[in-house]
């Protein structure tokens, strides 16, 4: 369109110039002819005049000049004698039109013309006046220019309108071709048959077809790359970092695809393996040893499924693994559990552990919901944990309801025996003060043993006690034993921390009992710090407030442990103002390389210090972590690097 407009403008300009040039040349020719005619007319006029002598010529010159000016259109007129002397002159008009000026400048159209009498006594010289003719030519040139302009620019306007319509039509046709390409996932063959109804569409289809085919090939390659990248990302997202096994997300997807929504008949067994010593190892030996412990369990399970075809191992969370044994009957699953148990026993002896892991097994069949299966395998796990170290239990379909009761009864019996015998061991792990802070304390940790003297998994033990409503009794026993041990060993000058469950903190009877116990201890109560988890405080804000107020009335202090894993706002801390917060170990682990955790901990320290709350870090197991914690201005550090838990003495 731009090229066409430029071409039309050029043609218009050339036509206008040509018309102007032709007009000037015609005007010049006409002017020359006009002057010759005027010269002939003047000569005839002079010839008709009677002969005059010199004196008569001089006398008649002015009158004759007036007659000639009236007779002929002239710009200038001179009457001269035989010697060339001017007898009379007239200049009726001096202005020239633009066209006359151009013609005069280019061709010298207007020249002086002469006529002489027969006796040569009179010579007339004049310059013709052709301005009236020039005006006519100029007007005709203007009309011609208007016509040329219309002829040149009307096509531009009409073509622009036509171009817009054509462009819309082309766009509609291309859109239709692309739609058909998308529908068929290829250009239809033959093209002339598919687009025979429209010649323009057929031409465009033939022209666009190679480009669309190239686009199809390119998009296909891109889709393959994206699918490959997505698969890699999915593998990374579904992979556990420590063990490189599939994580819980992969387990859920595997179960839903191959069991719950399977199209073919399927059966088998699922085993839940729980590494119950992880928390104890993390606290006593450090998180690096804890990772090694988890990797060892993963290696034992991976080696154990090698003879079971398509069996798979997944890590569900920090301490739990799932083993899927497709097409495996319960008897064969029991054989698998025995083999794994032997490996666990060997590992236990080598590393001198109370236990390694417990196994709960349940059979499954096609379309069994995952939630139901997990509930049943958790029952099997509870029963296994109520037995000896590294025990396993197979929960068959016909025993599910009875086994649930049996597992609960076993735990209830074990916990009641512990309470009856007042059997609890106490260990202590100190918190080292950092910087200018001199206030810290030692945390008292409870340990429980079975009939054979093996240490039971504390987390499972306390969780079952909470489930069975025994948390208050256990916490009372632990507090009594702790206070008695401190006084008997004459350690009342030191500060000690004691863990309290959320169930006990929110129990009115326990609160009354603890208040009386603290009042009885007098000044020693001021050296006691009670630890409760952040999530536990969130269960019941009102009860938490009453519990904290009671501790402060008695002079005791409160630590919010595992801080940072919940959603508690600092409005809560401004209202109830705990004395300490203990950052969850997940923020300490690898702190030297994690800028996000450093920023978060620094923010928490600044906010806590503004309201007078001291901040501790737990899980410190390297010099680098300790140095970073000191730089972040925390008030204390606890962990394997600082000091291992040891017997209270």
From TrEMBL:
Domain GGDEF stretches: 266-397
Superkingdom as given in the UniProt entry: Bacteria
Classification via InterPro entries: Cyclic-di-GMP_PDE-like, EAL_dom, EAL_sf, GGDEF_dom, Nucleotide_cyclase, Rev_trsase/Diguanyl_cyclase
Species: Pseudoalteromonas qingdaonensis
Record SMART domains: EAL, GGDEF
The organism's taxonomic lineage, starting at the top: Bacteria, Pseudomonadati, Pseudomonadota, Gammaproteobacteria, Alteromonadales
PROSITE patterns named in the record: EAL, GGDEF
Signal peptide limits: 1-22
Membrane-spanning parts: 141-159
Residue ranges constituting the EAL domain according to the UniProt record: 408-649
Pfam families hit by this protein: EAL, GGDEF
Keyword annotations from UniProtKB, A to Z: Membrane, Signal, Transmembrane, Transmembrane helix
Name assigned to this protein: EAL domain-containing protein
